[in-house]
Design goal:
Length: 123
């Protein structure tokens, strides 16, 4: 069911490919001095190829000024895999990061990625 939810989120987002980076499925934002922020967004995703994980996703990075104007869009395609069940985990390249489920939202981008995919309400 979560995989269907991810597909719905990403398919809806893909339907507006001309959309600005601020309209992507943002899962984490970090603010910096001078009213600048960096947002991490889900650009693509689907079922994981590795059966130990639930999702394979592509993450994009964008920098915004205080008015929401895009200052920079990273052209890279940052791939990650996410496992929802214990031990909750995010894999980036070949490094596995165990997710501390007690972490407050907004503190760690890997936790926020896991939460966006694994704790979304399912009807």
């Amino acid at each position: 069911m979560r995989r269907v939810l991810l597909c719905l989120i990403l398919c809806a987002q893909s339907a507006s490919t001309a959309a600005a980076a601020s309209e992507l499925a943002i899962f984490h934002t970090a603010s910096f001095g001078g009213s600048r922020s960096v947002s991490l967004s889900l650009a693509e995703g689907g079922p994981a190829r590795d059966r130990a994980f639930d999702f394979d996703v592509v993450i994009t990075l964008s920098e915004f000024d205080g008015d929401g104007t895009v200052l920079y869009r990273d052209g890279g395609r940052h791939q990650a895999s996410v496992r929802c069940i214990a031990p909750a985990m995010v894999r980036i390249n070949s490094a596995d990061y165990v997710i501390d489920l007690s972490t407050r939202p907004g503190t760690d981008w890997k936790h926020d990625l896991w939460a966006a995919l694994c704790t979304a309400p399912v009807s």
